[in-house]
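Q&A log
Question type: sequence-to-structure
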Amino acid sequence: MCVTCGCSDNNETTITNLEHEHHTHTLADGTVITHTHHHEEPADIHAKVHNTTISLEQEILGKNNLLAAQNRGWFKGRNILALNLMSSPGAGKTTLLTRTINDLKDKLSISVIEGDQETTNDAEKIKATGCKVVQINTGTGCHLDASMIERGLQELNPPLNSVVMIENVGNLVCPALFDLGEQAKVVILSVTEGEDKPIKYPHIFRNSEIMILTKIDLLPYLQFDVQRCIDYAKQVNPKIQIFQVSATSGEGLEGLYGWLNQQVNNSANLISL
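Response status: OK
Response body:
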């Protein structure tokens, strides 16, 4: 059980490879079931809070961190740049991701692990770009964890010297707590959400290397103080790097793509040492 959010270890996780159109279910007891027909059943959740909450949380995060370290080694050994994209629902992760893939697919090899509680809707949008994608449905779970990513990578089988984008479940709380083995955490905030999100949800902004402020083409129609939002983010994390972009108009994407290319080059340099 995730003692922070209440999602349960008894939850059933579904991993869908859209290329081969089969599903892999991992049950609470570790049983793995693979089949080709569509099957999505919400699992029962029985959350119990005991006096051992703190030790239980440490045990869960400790186990996750060990698996995350294995994932990180797996990525490094294959010279794969892995980014963990986190945001609240509706911030524009998928729209930004599809725009990025379409703009850069002739320059970078990008594949995607898509996280949602239910449906393959976003994964289908990613697949339409020609990108390899695997859908992870968490059921009642509100975040991806390292073990889900490990199983997702087995299905995705990303090529060497490539980029894996992990689109986490829409949530500004629990995704920040779980290391997936990524090289960098990226928090995405839209101008439709309010400029005080960094101080309302400080943990996710404190643990992210990058903040992407999306939907800036809507600023003329909103009461959103961009500078205040930036100040709040810097207050929480003075080292955070901020990009202001519009996936619709393309404004600001050149700077973001420059950062992404730099990360790819850094990853290549590390593997050659």
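Response note: The beta strands are 13-17, 22-26, 32-35, 81-87, 110-116, 132-137, 163-167, 184-190, 210-214, 241-244.
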